[in-house]
Design brief:
Elements: H1 4-13, E1 21-24, E2 28-33, E3 36-41, H2 45-48, E4 53-55, E5 61-66, E6 69-76, E7 86-90, E8 98-101, E9 108-110, E10 117-119, H3 120-126, H4 131-134, E11 139-142, E12 145-149, E13 153-154, E14 167-174
Antiparallel strand pairs: 1-2, 2-3, 4-8, 5-6, 6-14, 7-14, 8-11, 9-10, 11-12, 12-13
Length: about 180
């Protein structure tokens, strides 16, 4: 049931800014993205985002499941070898219990050692992260202060230094698929 009006609306999307949408028949939509136009089924972002997981900082170790991700938190005395999926934070700086969640209004991240911050929304725009992906990115947060944008950047203010006594190690593993499973 696509008609010429729908095709001309899709063509007009090329001249519009990123994030613009049009409704199409059969619960479909056309979206302008950085690379061009995407035609897909409409999806409910609220269904895509899992509930918030809270890590009580009084626990020395905990493991959580969030979708296909396994999150391991533990307090250690020193950093172990570097891994892409592991970050270390100064445990004594963290003011609240940590939460593993998606973005919220008022979130910010410290982007420079001198204390300069940036709103999370501005960071996503500057990095050209598509809007539909922004609501799915896992964040590690201390209140509204973001410690780690998983897969992208970590916070400068919570970095481990010479004065750090307790270190919080967070490891996030994606569900692995083995050749036998395919």
């Amino acid at each position: 049931d696509l008609e010429s009006i729908h095709l001309s609306q899709l063509q007009e999307l090329f001249d519009k800014q990123n994030g613009r949408k049009i409704d199409l028949p059969y619960q479909m939509e056309g979206r302008r993205i950085y690379e061009g136009i995407v035609v897909s089924l409409k999806h409910n972002i609220a269904e895509d985002c899992a509930e918030e997981i809270v890590y009580d900082m009084q626990e020395s170790e905990a493991t959580f499941l969030r979708g296909s991700k396994t999150i391991r938190c533990r307090i250690v005395a020193e950093k172990t070898f570097e891994k892409n999926n592991t970050r270390w934070f100064d445990c004594d700086i963290i003011e609240n219990n940590l939460s593993f969640r998606t973005r919220r209004e008022g979130d910010y991240i410290t982007i420079h050692p001198d204390g300069r911050t940036q709103k999370l929304k501005s960071y996503f725009i500057n990095e050209k992260i598509p809007q539909e992906e922004r609501d799915r990115i896992l964040l590690v947060a201390d209140g509204n202060h973001i410690l780690w944008i998983v897969g992208y950047r970590h916070n400068c203010a919570y970095q481990v230094n010479a004065e750090t006594k307790r270190i919080l190690e967070i490891q996030i593993d994606e569900g692995e698929s083995h050749g036998r499973d395919n």
